[in-house]
Design a protein that fits this description.
heterodimer; A: alpha/beta; five-stranded parallel sheet; 25 helices; 26% helix; 24% strand; disordered C terminus; B: mainly alpha; 21 helices; 0% strand
């Protein structure tokens, strides 16, 4: 960014986010949290994007809708995010910091009065059309959300949890708009929300910056006619299959094949459909994992014996947890067959699909399947092509937006940032990271205008409940089929109604969805509820949402209680519906017992420190520090080495030939040193970190100097990783055996200093993907290709062999893999059970490897053997993790709060992570994540005060005798012993530091005197729950409840 | 077998024609669609992989390139458009050169000037021998009005020359075939037993006569038919000239229905039509298999066509009673036909006449031998695989 440009002139405290998918949603939320009003524009009638169509997400198998629904709800009710659906960017004028954006919004024909009740949907005659062979008759309208596997009316709500949850009229099909007749929906709508007079309109918004995240579409498998997609009924795309798996899909989660609606027993997945070929020489990066996920889910849905065969070329399980997920799928009986299937054929009688493939033992086999899933690749959303002109962006030959390796979130145009698959195929967390990163870069421009355009949030005054008889509302969630397929939800509702103090009970499809939230609020008001229970997934993810909901209805948020009937009931008792239903009733009864004793609690506001401690002075740490400093936050940057730069100091070139890492590093170090808001501590270790979010106090141990104590509000962990030192393949014994980094250093020093070697053999996965370190190190395949290309550039006569297990050149790295082959680099595969061997013979090295395609033991005489050594976490991570009270994953990398949607946050508030400390990654990925961590910090520290948790320990003065049993066990050092004189005697009592206390309850458990208790988990509340659990269930109501009493939203 | 990797192999093979293995990432599509690839010999992938990895001896011992009839399905399917079908074609040239102990084959495949030069030298040599064998230039005609061919070049002398040529040709071809046999069946040990060779003899006869495997090659039935007709044409012509020359080269003018005439007509029509068709297709490049044409792919049908046309000219001029044109045509005919046979059959493209049926036979022998070794029955194909496994 050019400083002189961004620092003068007016800055508008608003930003435009183009694309309402998970990337755009993240950007909007980060902007709003950081004090910038966000306009979230989507072409479609609602936000949510492609993630809303997914059933579950890899590698955790988390329900996609369950993880994103809270965000949808948060955005829909966020006062500083304005959703502009059905709109497209038409023109952007003005300059960075002060753009004027003209949007064209298509009419919805439904206004804000819509309640999303769905009455119009059932009234629309086009919703009842049946497919007909007569071309003159109107055909049913394919439902886009279900990828055309079901049909919809001409007035519709795209999906149940859609935000905004308003119906929309399809102007292409609506009978009224086409012929002027019909209007049946108008009659059906009780709310008077349908308005056929709406016209297309122009909206002009003033923004300081733009983030474009227009998303992707699947490559149409018809580009490969040999797969018969569109002709063979039982050949579906992966997204269609995702809908078949989904509880909100065409068969409500039953996997039925399209031709005859029977359950398939044999499913094949064909990888790389439309990717990795001559026309599209890139890898779509997500398909290997989504096919693995879909295979696992299909087995879960249908039967563990379901045959799932995945036909692949290189299994690209390159990111965090992926390799382990792949191994898990293999152990669950998913078959991985290494062969690109060239064509499919259909048996016209059975509609089964058959194919031929090659096996590893050199035979050709035929196989027949009931269903074939095409793992189609990703391409940029075709609608994003228009952004080339309107935003002035540069596109590549495939329509992806071009970014530079050291500016991964920046488009060529100042003030316009980019995220998601728009720039390269990527998965959800990387999209989320890039979106947050884009916000960080935008905030460098917009920081001066923070807060200028924010709205004030007004909650209604709290309804006093003291002394009132509890009036409890119970909402029991189906969670699609997550709960309802095991637990008999209506039965639990009926049971809840029979319990004392229950004023209202009902079942909801997704309690977290916007419509249900509105329903809960309405019910609180209508029935005068003063306690609310939601029996659903888990409080871990959803409690804050429901607390906010009841607060919006005027109840104190702590009058909410959650019964965990999914994670702790339907999921763990999947095969025992009867007992699970009984347990769900028990859990509801226990929640009720506690709920009746809940009292209103208030959060305390404390001032926070604006400073940030960044641990690690490599690429990640410096990038994060610099962007935060530019936004005005004081940063302490701590580096254990005597100089800045980290691993990056050893990097001399990248795959992208134009990129110069050393040049970037020099500039970055200069910028960091020149930045007045950054204090650099080199040769420094963290001696201690105390305190908590908003108010940390750390001691820095500077070599040869006295310890420095610093106060800060947040911590960014950017400690990086290092190259594993191999013990095998003669490494350390023969000077001609190097690691990739050592080779890179040798290649960078002006080329071979003597005679170029005749033969270089690279061995991949050294120290990765084995029993000790199951994870893939992600970067090594790209590094090997990079160094091989460099060798070919320096001495084309040198032969290079790369011995790999899978070539994992994901995304645009694929083209460099192709280029390396074109340059004559030979890629030979080895099997993990038959690793290559390196021997010294007559002064030369000799590599022997069993090559499974040629089925031959190949002997390669080599002058240099280069090992792609694993990238391993720093051993000091353990100490730091303990100091910060954050977890490490089994491989020793730091573990983020949520693998999909919170990739730079820790579960511990105020602590963030980025770079190789999280997982090995390339410079552009590191920069994006560093920016993202900075954006999250900036959002957290945007205000001067911070609300503390209300569920914290409270000393009960009359019971505490100061025995201090609770002081030592407190993991947060929040409890201290006070001694004071009273009436001539020494009195003792403990005191709780409310900022430090996390409400874990250890003190309460150790106290023998009932002298300390956690608010919201008071002893009487817990014992009421225990009693409710132990007491025999009250008798079932004598009569079955009437059907109509049990409503579904 | 020596499995040392020879990194120079690919560039060496590339001197024999289009050989784009660099684009290949071994996905297996080519062998999947190939109707002829079977367990143990999953070509083209296996052959191309051997070349990529520099496994020279493995390639030399492989039969796969000869089992491929180049329908082009693999090339159409290849996601990287690396033209595996054409690469197999190039491998056949490379292998022909490897089997040839004289080194001539390698030279003529790598340089069209060598190929043209060899044809030219043998042609001139033939012309010189013909002029030695020539008895006179009789301008008077026979009673029936035909040219006195046997007074120009006496049948017996030509017959002797034909046999001599056949002997030379056979010597070179047989010596190369012996090497082919050595490389593919003997060198790497674990040779199939004689019983296997005997029990698969019918494959040799049947496949040699019909090229029946060509038919299995998916889209190739029309090509098989054309090829078979072409084979009958030159087979007939070759036997008329080498075996039945006394009957064929007469001064009698027979009526059209006489077998001597219509047999000759059949052969020349078939030869003309299909060589023209081959050349036409190669010019048009419409089919996958005709997208690439090496110089050797052009020269062979051109020589065959020229031989036929000059043969027709000899026939026409003889019947028309035009002595000098016939003498010229006869010389031209011999100066094309003889180099075509002596150069193309042992060293050039026509060598497939021996290698293809033998490869089919050897493949059958290998399978037969593998079945006789139940313990190693899983490793169909070469004995070396069994060793390696």
């Amino acid at each position: 960014m050019n400083e002189s440009d961004s620092n003068h002139g007016k800055k508008v405290g608003a930003a435009l986010v183009v694309g309402g998918g998970i990337g755009g949603m993240q950007a909007a939320l980060d902007f709003a949290a950081a004090g910038i009003k966000a306009y979230l524009v989507d072409r479609s009638p609602c936000i949510g994007g492609a993630m809303a169509q997914l059933d579950k997400t890899f590698p955790t198998n988390d329900c996609s809708m369950c993880t994103m629904a809270p965000r949808l709800v948060e955005i829909s009710r966020h006062k500083d995010i304005e959703i502009i659906p059905l709109a497209e960017v038409e023109k952007v004028s003005g300059r960075v910091g002060d753009f004027s954006v003209s949007l064209r919004q298509r009419p919805r024909f439904v206004n804000e009065k819509c309640t999303g009740c769905g009455a119009c949907l059932s009234a629309c005659p086009l919703g009842k059309l049946k497919p007909s062979d007569d071309p003159k008759k109107p055909q049913p309208i394919p439902d886009e959300y279900n990828e055309g596997l079901s049909t919809r009316p001409a007035i519709y709500i795209p999906y149940p949890q859609a935000v905004p949850n308003f119906a929309v009229v399809d102007p292409e099909r609506c009978l009224h708009l086409k012929t002027g007749k019909c209007k049946l929906c108008l009659k059906a709508c009780q709310a008077g929300a349908i308005d056929f007079t709406q016209k297309e309109r122009e909206i002009i918004v003033k923004v300081g910056a733009v983030v474009a995240a227009p998303g992707y579409k699947l490559i149409d498998p018809k580009v490969k006619p040999d797969y018969g997609y569109g002709t063979y009924k039982n050949v579906v795309t992966a997204l269609e299959f995702e809908r078949l798996l989904s509880a909100s899909g065409p068969h409500l989660g039953k996997v039925l094949r399209p031709s005859d609606k029977t359950e398939p027993k044999r499913i094949a997945f064909i990888q790389c459909v439309g990717s990795r070929d001559n026309e599209r020489d890139y890898c779509s990066a997500v398909c290997c994992m989504y096919a693995t996920k879909e295979a696992l889910l299909a087995k879960e849905h249908l039967s563990p014996d379901l045959q799932c065969d995945i036909y692949f070329m290189d299994l690209r399980a390159f990111s965090k947890g992926f390799e382990e997920y792949y191994n898990r799928a293999k152990s669950h009986g998913v078959n991985y067959i290494r062969c690109r299937v060239p064509k499919l054929s259909e048996d016209p009688a059975t509609r089964n699909i058959s194919l031929s493939f090659l096996t590893e033992d050199e035979t050709k086999r035929q196989a027949e399947y009931d269903l074939v899933v095409l793992s189609a690749g990703l391409k940029p959303n075709p609608s994003s092509a228009a952004l080339k002109g309107t935003l002035g962006l540069e596109f590549d030959e495939h329509g992806f937006c071009v970014t530079k390796p050291f500016a991964p979130v920046e488009s060529g145009r100042e003030g316009i940032f980019v995220a998601g698959v728009f720039t390269e195929p990527k998965d959800i967390p990387e999209t989320v990271i890039q979106a947050s990163g884009a916000v960080a870069k935008a905030m460098e421009i917009l920081a001066p205008a923070k807060g200028e355009l924010l709205a004030k949030k007004d909650y209604p005054a709290e309804i006093p409940v003291a002394g009132q008889e509890p009036r409890v509302g119970v909402f029991i969630c189906h969670c699609g089929t997550n709960i309802a397929s095991v637990v008999a939800v209506p039965e639990v509702v009926a049971y809840a109604k029979s319990l004392p103090n229950v004023e209202h009970a009902e079942n909801v499809l997704y309690a977290c969805a916007n419509d249900s939230q509105e329903k809960i609020k309405k019910t609180i008001v209508e029935k005068g509820l003063n306690r609310v229970i939601v029996a659903a997934c888990t409080p871990r993810t959803h409690e804050p949402l429901f607390r906010n909901t009841i607060r919006e209805a005027g109840l104190n948020p702590y009058l909410f209680e959650m019964a965990n009937i999914r994670d702790q009931c339907s999921w763990v008792h999947m095969s025992e519906p009867g007992p699970a239903t009984r347990k769900a009733k028990d859990l509801v009864r226990m929640a009720l017992a506690k709920s009746r004793l809940l009292e209103p609690l208030q959060k305390k506001q404390v001032p926070i420190q604006k400073g940030v401690l960044v641990i690690g002075g490599g690429l990640a740490g410096m990038t994060a520090a610099l962007t935060l400093a530019r936004q005005g936050f004081p940063v302490r940057l701590v580096e254990r080495d005597p100089e800045l730069g980290g691993m990056m100091r050893r990097s001399h070139f990248l795959l992208e030939p134009e990129a110069d890492p050393q040049k970037h590093l020099r500039r970055l170090i200069e910028d960091v040193k020149a930045e007045k808001n950054i204090t650099v501590f080199t040769g420094t270790k963290i001696a201690a970190i105390e305190g908590c979010v908003g108010n940390f106090k750390s001691r820095l141990a500077v070599v040869g100097k006295p310890e420095v104590s610093v106060l800060h509000g947040a911590v960014i962990v950017a400690t990086g990783a290092r190259e594993h030192r191999p013990e095998e393949y003669l490494y350390g014994k023969n000077p001609s055996v190097l690691t990739q980094l050592e080779l890179e250093e040798r290649l960078s020093a002006g080329g071979w200093n003597a005679q170029p070697p005749r033969m270089v053999v690279m061995i991949q996965c050294v120290g990765s993907r084995d029993e000790k370190r199951p994870n893939c190190s992600r970067v090594c395949c790209g590094e090997a290709v990079k160094n091989a290309l460099k060798i070919k550039e320096l001495s084309p006569e040198t032969s290079v062999y790369v011995l790999f297990r899978d070539v994992r050149t994901y995304g645009f790295k694929e083209a460099y893999y192709t280029e390396a082959r074109r340059q004559g680099v030979v890629f030979g595969r080895y099997d993990e059970t038959r690793k290559p061997s390196v021997a010294e013979e007559g002064g030369r090295l000799r590599v022997t490897v069993w090559e499974p395609v040629a089925r031959a033991e190949v002997v390669i005489p080599a002058d240099l053997v280069v090992l792609s050594a694993a990238t391993v976490p720093h051993p000091e991570n353990k100490d730091l993790a303990q100091m910060l009270k954050v977890p490490l994953d089994p491989n020793g990398f730091f573990l983020e709060a949520h693998m999909k949607l919170r990739p730079v946050d820790f579960a511990t508030e105020g602590v963030f992570l980025c770079g190789a400390a999280h997982f090995p990654k390339t410079p552009d990925e590191t920069i994006a994540q560093a920016l993202a961590a900075a954006a999250r910090v900036a959002a957290m520290l945007a205000n001067d005060t911070m609300a503390l948790e209300a569920n914290i320990s409270q000393v009960i003065d009359e019971n505490c005798d100061g025995c201090a049993y609770c002081v030592d066990p407190c993991p947060y050092k929040a409890v201290t012993l006070l001694e004071y004189m009273r009436e001539g005697a020494i009195k003792k009592i403990v005191e709780v530091n409310e900022s430090l206390c996390k409400g874990c309850g250890v003190c309460q458990a150790t106290c023998p005197k009932k002298g300390i208790s956690v608010r919201g988990f008071m002893l009487n509340q817990i014992s009421a729950m225990a009693e409710a659990a132990l007491s025999p269930a009250p008798l079932e109501p004598a009569a079955e409840p009437k059907r109509e009493e049990v409503q579904t939203l | 077998m020596n499995t040392s990797s020879d990194p120079g192999l690919v560039s060496e093979v590339r001197r024999y024609g289009h050989f784009d293995v660099d684009g290949c990432y071994n996905c297996g599509s080519c062998a999947c669609v190939c109707e002829l690839a079977e367990d143990g010999s999953l070509f083209p992938r296996k052959s191309l992989r051997s070349a990529q990895l520099g496994l020279r001896d493995r390639l030399l011992s492989s039969l796969e390139p000869w089992l491929c009839y180049y329908c082009g399905d693999c090339s159409k399917t290849c996601p990287r458009q690396t033209e595996p079908g054409e690469s197999m074609m190039t491998l056949r040239r490379f292998l022909t050169a490897q089997y040839d102990w004289t080194g001539l084959s390698a030279r003529m495949y790598r340089s069209k000037w060598w190929e043209l030069g060899m044809i030219g030298v043998v042609g001139l040599l033939t012309g010189w021998i013909m002029s030695m064998l020539m008895a006179g230039l009789p301008t008077d005609l026979t009673v029936q009005g035909g040219v006195k061919i046997n007074e120009f070049l006496p049948m017996a002398r030509v017959h002797a020359f034909d046999w001599a040529m056949a002997a030379v040709l056979t010597f070179f071809l047989l010596s190369n075939v012996t090497r082919f046999f050595w490389f593919t069946m003997l060198r790497d040990g674990d040779a199939p037993p004689l019983r296997s060779y005997l029990s698969e003899l019918q494959t040799l006869v049947w496949d040699g006569a019909t090229q029946i495997r060509f038919r299995d090659c998916g889209t190739n039935i029309p090509r098989w038919t054309k090829h078979l007709l072409l084979v009958t044409g030159y087979g007939l012509m070759f036997s008329l000239i080498v075996l039945f020359l006394p009957w064929f080269q007469t001064e009698n003018l027979y009526p059209v229905w006489h077998p001597q005439r219509w047999l000759g007509y059949y052969a020349t029509i078939v030869l003309t039509v299909f060589t023209v068709e081959i050349l036409w297709s190669r010019l048009g490049k419409e089919e996958q298999i005709h997208k690439f044409s090496d110089f050797s792919d052009w020269l062979f049908p051109i020589l065959l066509l020229l031989t036929t046309l000059t043969g027709i000219a000899v026939h026409v001029f003889r019947y028309a009673g035009m002595p000098y044109p016939m003498f010229c045509a006869y010389f031209a005919h011999m100066m094309v036909a003889v180099p075509m046979l002596t150069v193309e059959v042992p060293f050039g493209k026509w060598a497939h006449i021996a290698y293809r049926p033998l490869a089919a036979y050897f493949q059958a022998v290998r399978k037969n031998a593998a079945l006789r070794r139940p313990a190693e029955g899983a490793a169909l194909g070469t004995g070396t695989q069994a060793q390696a496994a």
